[in-house]
Amino acid sequence: PAAAPQLPTSPAAAAPPPALGSLRQRLAAAFQQSLDAAFPSMAGEPAIVNPCNNPKFGDYQCNNAMGLHGKLKGQPDAPKNPRAVAEALVAHLPETGMVAETSLAGPGFINIRISPDWLASHLTTMLRQGISTWAPAGYAGRRVVVDFSSPNVAKEMHVGHLRSTIIGDTLAHTLEFCGADVLRLNHIGDWGTQFGMLIQYIAEKRPEGLNAASDEDVQDLQVLYRAAKQRFDEEEAFKQRAREAVTELQGGRPEYLQACAWQRICDASRREFQKIYDRLGVQLQERGESFYNPMLKPVVDDLMQRGIAEESDGAKCVFVEGAQIPLIVQKSDGGFGYASTDMAAVKHRIETEKADWIIYVTDMGQSSHFDLVGGGGRGHGGGGGGGDGKKFRSRSGDVVRLVELLDEAKQRIVDTVKERRPDATPEEIEEMAAAMGYGAVKYADLKNHRTTNYKFSYDDMLSQQGNTAVYQLYAHARIASIVRKSGRDVSELAKTARVVLGHEKEVALALQIARFSDAVDECLAELLPHRITEYLYDLSTAFNQFYTECQVVGSPEEDSRLLLCEATALTMRTCFQLLGIQVLYRI
Ligand code: ARG
């Protein structure tokens, strides 16, 4: 949109002050101080603060009393019961202004009510300094490698790769929001056994041999792959020649690497993958398996020298404690495989990229592989990864053509858009349909726990009701229009006016807005993007309840309530940014 009068998600202002952490982290820090002061012998015992199970009793609760009571037993002056521990914790709580009241419940739970006055100034300050000041603590400055998407050359990118692309992109955005230094890596399969088969097939199809290969040979990679695979499966001798071709390819025999074959196949695949990334607006740095080829032999030699890998049946293996099978880092015929590459990648990412956190987003089927790589990688001096996400199955159980899937989602929403906005230009319709259609696919994926399968349904994901991107985009546009139609300049207003919380629905909305930081922290701490979509849904609900009961424009509280509207819209926009969904201001 030409002119968006609302505040941007990232302020143009100079560097914001360092983040003080999420609401939960701030409360935990306060309780940490009180714990250390009240029970010096237990100092350092982590304070446990969680959202309250029942909002009737409080917003958060501290659950340390029971555990501390047990640990203090037998010490001189030990409190006689958990409630006494809880009372001591409350008595030593430092003055932060955050806590309006506390109450004890059950054996020794401490219920905490956040102060509305504190919330009001927390929101006012955020509107002035930018929402990045709300980033949870613990992520800024960390160097994180996110290995995601990672499809295989010459094979079709399937829904599992789409899921990895969407989840990985959200994790990367969220880490970036928190100030982490993120390297987004596309570990494409450009070096596997399939190449021997493909190259050999091309070479034998043309009497002139490989040097005559052209783009025609790779025009339809699906056709090429299927034909080559069929020969590979049916002809033992061809299979053998294909295997030799891989070894030669990996040894770098020039003609295989020439533009005529390997490069041509990779380029053709790359063009296909890019169509998906363009539609989804995903940025990734390609660093495929081939990148690590020169490192494989030194890495295996090093693992052998250090005694981490050992010879077994002619192969070189890493035996990871507790694992059923070893990680084979070099096969008995001397060849390297997927596992060797991942070992080299771990080393490179830790030593050269200086990663202190490596996140792999790939299908659950590979979890045991990553457990082994993690084990082997740790032995090697670094931390490994962890598997992620279950295999996605499309309804028919086979691979769905992803480009078509995305375009269909977009196409299906076009009529709705035209109906609602008959005045829109074709470009505007295109922009809205893309935001909603592609956004719907992303949202449908992200709102599910990453380890569950879900049923892919256009009707569900494009619904204007319920927890969908379309619903959320409408909700945001509606709030944006309330602000716009007020005729006030909210960025000017934010400089002078303050949020004042009187009505109970105002307080509830303000608390929900402020909980954004908790959602971001949970998303990263557990690598669960659905924490963000859940949060967004609760935020829309809190806003609706506020708007039903509280008049905004024309009320005596107009200034403060406009700021609440703006804070809601800004927080929603930031969530969209984390989820990789294009924001719309007018629908
Ligand atoms: N190319 C692999 C596949 O399609 C995923 C790669 C995941 N990343 C890695 N470092 N192994 O299953």
UniProtKB/TrEMBL annotation:
Name where it's found. Cytoplasm
Q: Name the domain of life.
A: Eukaryota
Q: Which GO terms describe its biological process?
A: arginyl-tRNA aminoacylation; post-embryonic development; reproductive structure development
Which GO molecular function entries does the Swiss-Prot or TrEMBL record give? arginine-tRNA ligase activity; ATP binding
User: Which coarse location class describes where this protein primarily resides?
Assistant: cytoplasm
Arginyl tRNA synthetase N-terminal domain: from which residue to which, for each copy?
A: 25-114
Gene Ontology CC annotation, any one:
cytoplasm
SUPFAM superfamilies in the record, alphabetically?
Anticodon-binding domain of a subclass of class I aminoacyl-tRNA synthetases, Arginyl-tRNA synthetase (ArgRS), N-terminal 'additional' domain, Nucleotidylyl transferase
Q: Which SMART domains match?
A: Arg_tRNA_synt_N, DALR_1
Keyword presence, Translocase: no
Q: How does it assemble?
A: Monomer.
Please state which protein family the record places this protein in: Belongs to the class-I aminoacyl-tRNA synthetase family.
Q: Which NCBIfam families match?
A: argS
The protein's matches in PANTHER family, at most eight in alphabetical order, are given as: ARGININE--TRNA LIGASE, CYTOPLASMIC (PTHR11956:SF5), ARGINYL-TRNA SYNTHETASE (PTHR11956)
By what name is this protein known? arginine--tRNA ligase
Originating species: Chlorella variabilis (Green alga)
